[in-house]
Specification:
The chain is of the alpha/beta class and 528 residues long. Among the domains are: 105 residues, Flavocytochrome C3, Chain A, domain 1 (Alpha-Beta Complex); 89 residues, Methane Monooxygenase Hydroxylase, Chain G, domain 1. A five-stranded parallel sheet has the order 9-3-2-13-20, covered by helices on one side. The radius of gyration is 22 Å and the shape is globular.
Amino acid sequence: MKTPRYLVPFDVRRLPWRTADVLIVGGGVAGLRAAIEAGRRSRVVLAVKRGRTDSNTQWAQGGVAAALDRGDSIRSHVEDTIGAGKGIADERVVRTVIREGALRVRELMEWGTRFDRERGAIRFAREGGHSRARILHAHGDATGAEIARALLEKVRAEPNIVVLEHTFVLDLLTRDGRCVGAIAAGPDGQLQGIAAPRTILATGGIGQLYRETTNPDVATGDGLAMAHRAGARLEDMEFVQFHPTALYIAGAARALISEAVRGEGALLRDRLRRRFMPDYHPDAELAPRDTVSRSIVRQMRATDDTQVYLDLSHLPGAQVRKRFPGLVALCRTYGLDIARDPIPVRPAAHYHVGGIQIDLRGRTSLPGLWAAGECACAEFHGANRLGSNSLLEGLVFGTRAAQDAVRQKLPEVRTPPAVSFRRTARALPPALDLADVRASLKAVMWREVGVERQADGIERAIQAIDFWKRYILPCVFESPAGWELQNMLEVSGLLAGAALARQESRGTHHRVDFPETDDAKWKRHQIL
């Protein structure tokens, strides 16, 4: 068992402690669903880094996929998911998630989630990679926020759940080879211990490793970093999905423009107003996301431009404004009428397919630790996530991890684990500008480990990351800005190393110097 490393010194005898049957870290769809499930029979502490509504789930516009429509089938959804996975999705996992996911979505409806309807029936939309319309949306393009609202209401109604907001979980604690809780910093920055025989990580994604991302500021890979420091295995770190269409306007956040917009009929055009996707794929704008992202990058290069454009002007204006109210409001603030004006877009880091290795029960390789949602890798997505499958996966594995955790007959952790970590604080380099290091990291990851990759570029990224790590990781910081940067550097190094090792192109991982898929050598997963 690997000896754990910690970000900050601590003495367990001097820390304030709280205890729980289950500690859950992260307040997105997976964390909330896990808390609801565990809270039925156990005392739960749910720790979230910012407020209750700060998560990738809140930003999820696209929808949730479920085989619920008449004429659709579990089999069809499974086949689409396996096809998107490019040969390395685990069929048993896929079948389990798709089957149980349909039940979880029906459950959301029973809990008051208001999905969009047409003539009294659920309105299903089609997205790229799906063979038929099976995507449920809420309020047009606010599906994640609506699902989170319904889950949060259930959490608030459960007396067994204590929510700790603005609580940064720094590291996991282990004793005798088991995870027994965590060290966290509260809103005042003071360290505290949370003792729990069961911990579920649901910390979300890694989008902030990249200069261009649709993810909120909280997506800094904290769960992956702390799991790695504690000795848990990571898997398929190289697979990062880049959403093809993020809003690209100076001064604007890289807001995701949902695949549903293309599903509704939007066309992609270059600066010459030429529609180009039919040149790259027979499904044109509805091709899989990785194909669309690479096509946009190549078209930008061919036209010497920094963006392409989404065009909805050929669609009825009233239909567009009703279907995408959030996008209408966002673009209006920048003087764009989406029913008339082309929308400038380009790819952005959107979803991490790899993560903490888990099995079908959500168990990691570290006893006492489970994981769910985007921070986890169950081999459900394979090498590429099928659009709108992520909320589904979060619901299923949030439920499964909690069910398995509370079934385990484990002794309560009534006293602080007998572990302390002391280190002489290394002086910070003079006038250290953390924001500058963070921006430099994001730029090199985008440039060298982004949509298209090759060995010399990845090696340059690794050299830069290793250099930054030499003077950043030994430092002891006292605020989230430093802790996040340390986590980002750790995860970036692991991701870049995995990208260099996989000498082929598969799914979201495209190597310019190895453009073909090599099943003989690489139809497998990478375990760290």
